[in-house]
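The instructor's notes for this session suggest beginning with a concrete chain rather than abstract definitions. Hand out the sequence below and ask the class to guess, before any prediction is shown, which regions might be ordered.
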Amino acid sequence: MAFSSVLLFTHLCAVTLAYSEPSCTEAPGSQFDFQQDGDYMIAGLFPVHESLGITRPVPELQDCNTEIFNKHGYHLMQAMRFALEEINGATSALLPGVKLGYEAYDICSESANILATFNIASKQNIEHQDELQLTTETHYDPKTIAVIGPDSSTYAFTTASVMGYYLIPQISYESSNELLSNKRLYPSFFRTIPTDRYQVRAMLQLLSEFHWTWIAVLGSDEDYGTQGMQSLSELALKYGICVAYQATIPSYSEDTRAQMLQVIKGIVQTKVNVVVVFSSNRKASGFFSLVIEQNITNKVWIGSEDWSMSTLVSMLPKIKSIGSVMGISVKAAEIPGFAEFEARSIESENSKANEELVCQSETFSEILACYQVCDQCRLLNSTDVHSLLETFDIQSSFNVYTAVYAVAHALHQLLGCDSEECQKKQVHPWQVRG
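After discussion, reveal the predicted structure:
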């Protein structure tokens, strides 16, 4: 049975990691806000660090703390913490007398996301899993009632497959792939971002409005990019648009430089003036760095929502030389008090900069602790703080914020809360899912 295979793989992977990796825990109080106890727990998956994208012959678990600090992912995690602080506040009418806790995971790579997903699943305290009945309270004592994230559609497919088995509601803030809407395959997957179907149609309407009928379409080499590129190309003819050139954008590195130059050469040779780029912000940044280097100018670039408003692209040196950039974006929203919360959080973390990591070798959960460290979060100086607070995607942070509130409202109803108190009781994730 497919679900049994997933579960078996989960436990086999957990055992393998537990005996092949060193584990560690941090000195008391030194962990960078990756967890907080509560009556009910929410798990969060955030790319606080970004993998260098180095191709490896075999899958390898990366130490996220050694990777590139990802300001965007940092803001996403802080948005979850801020929402929970508001909900847990003494003046909140939501969940009175109830404290929501969290466990945040740094998913800097696919292997880190897999490990985090399996760790969440391993804490569900299910007995007799070969005869699992999710509605039988006797054998189901879950720790996590909901999962927020991850950011990538590619990662979301993995997490949604496992969370769907346990019927743990998963709310992604950036995974827009249309295939994730299949409730038969992903029964517990939800999101606070529109699916790619809507932005594909918006792009085609934009192209049609300006009579741009001879175009190139590029997509980054993950599910988000390839599915978006494919969907747009399939629908283009219905709008009278010809896709003269189509190519995939890899992660930028010395190994892929020749491939990316070939993509740029294809754009030049087909003599298109309009290029649609369906890409994640990180890969779009690498691609446009090379476009600038190759002095490609006077083009119209139409961007997908993931990179169109991203500072990773807009702050590239000489980015204005590439021509005109138009993009799809979700309407921005405000989070009152969020910037002040982040400033306080950064100041608090700076005071922990000298605390040390203490390594041990005991449980599977402790293995993960080794990879949940953010030294750079504690070492931000005044210049870094200003840059950090000025440059971030408020929409994605708002998506996280609303996802947390969605879980809180569902739990509020489930616990029969009134204005003064809630009926604290054991809650199963499938009940929160509704």
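Then share the key points. Confidence is low (pLDDT under 50) at residues 1-31, 128-132. The CA atoms of residues 57 and 375 lie 28 Å apart.
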